[in-house]
Structure formats: structure tokens, C-alpha cells
Amino acid sequence: MSTHETSGRSYPVRKSDAEWRAELSPEEYQVLRLAGTERPYTGEYEDTTTEGVYACRACGAELFTSETKFASHCGWPSFFDPKDSSAVELIQDRTLGMVRTEVRCATCGSHLGHVFEGEGYPTPTDQRYCINSVSLRLRPKA
């Protein structure tokens, strides 16, 4: 069952599980639709400093910008703020015996990663949006 179907929320972009499976690679599907996590330090955007906009790999919605990306050295791309507060949806996640805040694309409901607060990073928001590279597609600045 996909993340979209289990969320209880209706998203602007809605597709059947079969459509998501047909459009996404197995790794993309595992992360975006089943709330999986890519292995740390393996994602293509972890160390990227290219200027541009990071969009949802599933639906293309603009989620984050290079201006809010920072080097957290945690193994995944980190941002201190989404491009727009309505670009992402935050949901309490009680899996794995802990309480975290899941970050989903507000347009299609795809799992992106988690957001953490109060970790001491020198960012304007004191937040770290820890996002799977496989859930993003970088659109370089022209």
C-alpha cells in the first residue's frame, strides 16, 4: 500500500499504486511511496553545492532550494527550510520505537524524509530537514 493511500488526506496529484510502481524505479518507490530510507552517504545530492531548486521526484513539485541547503554531515541532504511552507506536509511518525516528524510532499503525499529541531546546527530555523536524495530531482539554476 502506498504512502498516499495510507495518509487519509487527498492530494492534488493522485495515482494508483500500479501507476506509481510503473513510473518510479524500485528504490524510488521504496522511499517515496513506502516511507523507506536510502543508505546514508549514498545519495546523489548529499554533497551537491549546485545552485537550483529541488523538486519532488514523484510529481515535480518544488520543495527546497540550494539557498537553504547546508552541510550537516549526517549522510543525507539537509535543508533548514522548505521553499514554501505549503510545499511540504509534516506528520508525526511513531515507527521504529521513536517519535519523529515525517516530511511528505504536499502535492502527492510522497515520503521525503524527516525534520529535526534543536540539534545545534547554526541555521536560521534551528531545523534540519533530512531528505532522501532519491526523493528529489535538482533543477539547476539557469
UniProtKB/TrEMBL annotation:
Its cofactor is Zn(2+). It comes from the Bacteria. Transmembrane segments: none annotated. Keywords: Metal-binding, Oxidoreductase, Zinc. This is peptide-methionine (R)-S-oxide reductase. GO terms for biological process: protein repair; response to oxidative stress. It is an enzyme of class 1 (oxidoreductase). NCBIfam families: peptide-methionine (R)-S-oxide reductase MsrB. It comes from Kineococcus xinjiangensis. The lineage of its organism: Bacteria, Bacillati, Actinomycetota, Actinomycetes, Kineosporiales. Pfam families: SelR. GO terms for molecular function: metal ion binding; peptide-methionine (R)-S-oxide reductase activity. Residues 17-141 form the MsrB domain. PROSITE patterns: MSRB (PS51790). One of its GO terms (cellular component) is cytoplasm. The keyword Oxidoreductase applies. The keyword Oxidoreductase applies. Its EC number is 1.8.4.12. SUPFAM superfamilies: Mss4-like.
